[in-house]
Write a structure and sequence with these properties.
Layout lengths: L1 H10 L3 H28 L2 H24 L5 H29 L5 H30 L1 H21 L13 H13 L2 H32 L4 H23 L7 H15 L1 H5 L3 H29 L2 H15 L3 H15 L1 H19 L15 H14 L8
Helix pairs in contact: 1-6, 2-4, 2-8, 2-13, 2-14, 3-4, 3-6, 4-13, 5-6, 5-9, 5-12, 7-13, 8-13, 8-14, 8-15, 9-12, 10-12, 10-15, 14-15
């Protein structure tokens, strides 16, 4: 995150150029998500994750070599982003669908809390902190090499996961996709949340990803290390948010919790526009990422408990696909909006409008409705799979 932003702003002072890199990354990710989700319901999710990690490691290793030779331009950054985005389109739904196969119903909230604890620790806390120093010491090429190594390590960890059974009956990709779309359409708590997310992401993802480093560098005249500190502060907030959500044992009013957290996170984006120094940016980052993580823990758990596991990959891909569909447009609109309103006012407007949109969807009929008591198909299948892989194999296997 730090290396790409600083590499782009070394080439150009224009926020539009960083937006192009974001567009090149998010476009293929959105385009291939449905294919990635359907694939993760048809073949081993472990295999999908492993291949996605290896592809991303190879792409970033190539970028590190090109950058070390001093030949890195926007084209190389965009091309690498496109490969990484495509691989992520397969990895994200496979990861979401794999969790209920590995843990029991009682452990889902804890597993998702660990995910939202560990992920920000690396993505937003340790990563940016290391990245800010590495940009100065190792240059961007060294950061890209470290990133490639991290994906290789992730692949090695994925390879240690036991091989799990694939439960999907033979059918065509089109039939699988239509089945998933019909399921989402029949549950308002799913489709309303997906649409809410895509509208909210349209408003604030591009501005935060493009304008936050711009403000740190050109408005506050701070270094890459300071940008790393701001992003790392968000990681610290995410850890606190995940810890808070992990203590929530009751399943009642789960959607109200999710929407309230996400509305608060979006509103806090306005804090980026109001902040007059790096301390203010860091404080806003704590609230943005903390509330986002607190909502994500409960949302992931609700989805894994309510959706049948054999359809979870497709539902997760539809979630990612609809939720992130507006990301390319968000990046594309950021630069002209910043020229029209200014960087600070763009962030301020994004936070306020995003919060209003988010909370409005909580009142769509059926979103707050609690499911009938009883164990869902997702839980039954997940528990059966857990028992199967925990028992000694009777023939073949590991």
């Amino acid at each position: 995150m730090v290396a790409v932003a600083w590499q782009v702003y070394n080439i150009s002072r224009s926020p539009a150029d960083l937006a192009y890199v974001g567009l090149a990354t998010s476009g293929p990710q959105v385009a291939f998500l449905f294919l990635g989700g359907t694939t993760s319901d048809r073949i081993s999710r472990r295999s999908v994750l492993l291949l996605a990690d290896l592809v991303r490691a190879a792409a970033l290793a190539c970028l590190a070599l090109i950058s070390a030779g001093g030949r890195t331009g926007l084209y190389e950054l965009c091309a690498t982003g496109a490969v990484v985005g495509t691989a992520t389109a397969f990895a994200s739904p496979a990861f979401d669908a794999l969790v209920p196969q590995l843990v029991s119903r009682e452990e889902l909230i804890g597993a998702n809390a660990i995910d939202q604890f560990v992920r920000p620790s690396a993505l937003q806390l340790a990563g940016p902190a290391i990245g800010g120093v590495a940009v100065a010491v190792l240059r961007p090429s060294g950061c890209f090499a470290l990133d490639a190594t991290s994906f290789a390590f992730s692949g090695a960890c994925t390879a240690l996961i036991a091989r799990l059974p694939v439960t999907k009956a033979p059918s065509t990709f089109r039939q699988d996709l239509y089945e998933g779309l019909r399921y989402v359409r029949s549950h308002s708590w799913l489709w309303a949340t997906f649409i809410s997310a895509t509208l909210t992401y349209l408003l604030f993802i591009g501005p935060t990803q493009v304008l936050l480093p711009y403000i740190v560098r050109y408005v506050l005249h701070q270094s890459a290390s300071m940008y790393g500190v701001v992003v790392a502060s968000g990681g610290l907030g995410a850890l606190c948010g995940a810890l808070l959500a992990s203590q929530r044992r009751s399943q009642r009013r789960g959607m109200t919790w999710v929407y309230t957290c996400w509305a608060l996170a979006t509103l806090a984006v306005a804090g980026y526009g109001l902040a007059s120094n790096a301390t203010g940016l860091a404080a806003a980052a704590v609230v943005v990422n903390g509330a986002e993580a607190a909502g994500a823990v409960v949302w992931s758990t609700l989805k894994q408990r309510r959706v049948p596991n054999e359809m979870l990959g497709r539902v997760s891909s539809i979630d990612w696909g609809i939720s992130t569909a507006s990301l390319p447009l968000s990046y594309a609109l950021t630069a002209p909006m910043a020229r029209l309103l200014g960087a600070r006012h763009t962030l301020l407007a994004a936070g306020i409008l995003g919060a209003v949109v988010t909370i409005a969807f909580l009142y769509v009929p059926g979103v707050r409705r609690e499911p009938k008591p009883g164990t869902s198909p997702a839980v039954r299948l997940g528990a059966a799979t857990l028992e199967a892989v925990s028992s000694p194999p009777t023939r073949g296997g590991r």
